[in-house]
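Limitations
The structure tokens in this dataset are predictions for the assembled complex, not deposited experimental models. Users should treat interface geometry with appropriate caution, especially where small molecules or nucleic acid strands are included. An illustrative entry is reproduced here so readers can see what is and is not provided.
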Amino acid sequence: MSEHIIRVMVAKPGLDGHDRGARVLARCFRDAGFEVIYTGCHQTPEQIAAAAIQEDVDVVGLSCLSGAHRYLFPAVVEQLRQRGADDIDVVGGGIIPDQDFQFLYDAGLKALFTPGEKLDDIVEWFRQNVKKRD
Amino acid sequence: MYFSKEVLESSSRMRQKWEDEVKKVIAKGPDQKPRWSTVSDLEIKRLYGPEDIQHMDFEQDIGYPGQFPFIRGNQPTGYRGKYWTFRMFSGMGNAKTTNERWHMLLREGQTGLSTAFDFPTLMGYDTDSPKARGECGKCGVAIDTLDDFMQLVDGIPMDQVTTSMTINPPATVLWAMYCAAAELKGIPLTKIGGTIQNDMLKEFIAQKTLMCPPDPSVKLVSDTVEFGAKHVPRWNTISISGYHIREAGATAVQELAFTLRDGMEYVEDVIRRKGLHVDAFAPRLSFFFNSHSDFFEEIAKLRAARRIWAKAMRDRYKSQDQRSWWMRFHTQTAGCSLTAQQPYNNVIRTATQALAAVLGGTQSLHTNSLDEVLCLPSDHAVQIALRTQQIIAEETGVANTIDPLAGSYFVESLTNELEEKAWEYIHKIDDMGGMVAAIEKGYPQLEIADAAYHFQKQIDAGEKIMVGINKYVSAEPSPIPLVEIDDTVEIEQIKSLEAVRRKRDDKAVKRSLEDIKNACKKGDNVMPHCIEAVKNFASVQEICDVYREVYGEYRDPGLY
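Predicted assembly:
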């Protein structure tokens, strides 16, 4: 599963501008040999889903530090589903309290990464778990 | 020369002896690590001595408090006349909840107010905008119209307490609401005091609260500076901010350089666009810095900031009013240094960072609460954070004497080094054609991205330590109570916005929005029209939509 080149979109949904983590990860994925698209801040769930399909990515990594993840993360999953692209995996990160994890997994998030995570560990998770889209 | 020839000679002799001793000790067992550096990765020597500061000129480089170059502080009396302002950044849910928090903080001995707005307000959207879904009240207080604002300042003596508002693209609107609220309470604009952050340049560089492109954004900033200079003389119309630059991953030098170069850009813009003399407005420019974990680097940074600004104002802009040379600043401890793991450790981090800010001579301080890494602060956590400042002020004795670290070989040397490196950046940005031009090239954004990535790599490699993250990790979870803003806040806020829309005079709203549009098109000052519009209950978004329509919207280019 690790032979293909992973194509990842790093995205910032909503109005949150805290993009340090998103940008560090975008650079880390690039250094790991992934193909990276970074949307910049302030994307709506609709824009993110449309861009993910247009860019034909394997996985979308969402970052939110504003507390609105309970609305925004499931909204991206739903927008992908509505566009027939539920084979694009969605993962998330940011300031996410432990108590919200199950809610987000139930909503279709494949993994959640919170502060303190090592970059290498995140890359390894992607290598092990992200499937190439057909 | 700072030291006599005799002192330097004896120092040189004794240093040789010390170095020989060091070599002997190291031969038996090496240091714990080969390289010692600040959190910004600035290399630090084992020892500093007279030779490290021998080139300093006492009068030009150090001097006395209240005298050029103000490295030792603006005020001749230091903290004896007045401690720094205890100013806790707060805002949550709706205006009523935040007003209650404000009254609680004032009862507990806070001496100034500071407003955190929620994301829709910060970005110039109303709570019922589709873009605002899920964000209402989450990161701060939701304000849609003057109706909310009047609740926010209910019972607040606006002629006695100064209020800071962290608001940027819609700064004209929220400041207009503050002015209108004061007038409705019968307080003249000459009596109100406070600060609007209103620093758009650092938004493009770091914080990313974006609305219009750089040039019109700076035009709106200059409008507020001009309006304040003429009508609201006690107001700080910009808080030129390094805080967010640092939080985005900048080094201490980058924070210093980019912030001060932003300040210079505003000075130049107001002179050029408004034709004001520098001394007509520069005394009301204020600054805002981060106090990060590296104790001496932060103290040196704050001392260097005062000296750089004094030199720039006197020599670069030919200011003659000493008040323009003063760098007055607020400080906040570093949110990015806190950890969700073992969160009670954050109390200690915040305390040492606050101490550095005080030893650096801050005029105002916010101390982070231990739970801010996870959520909005609880009453209990915010009380500990406020008490941290009060303990530093009234128990530790550090406020007894002014600038107690002056003359330290290390602190003076580090202050000089940070200043030199900051000027290198400032001159580089000058050569690019100024900060707006540098931002358009992506220069400061990418410098910060480099530093952020470098730091993360160092953390992952264990070269820099964060306790509880990459050392002294605890397997035991340490849960703390979390403040939650539930979705009913959004529903209620939308209801009250709809009620305001029903009862207001729509024709008056439309007319005042037209006036703002015309002012934008003609290049006139928007402030008087904004005050009129908010009094007619025009909403934050309605006014910001005018700006977006006339000036266009700015999209984050997503540099990394």
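Some entries come with short summary sentences. For this one: Chain A has a mean pLDDT of 95.
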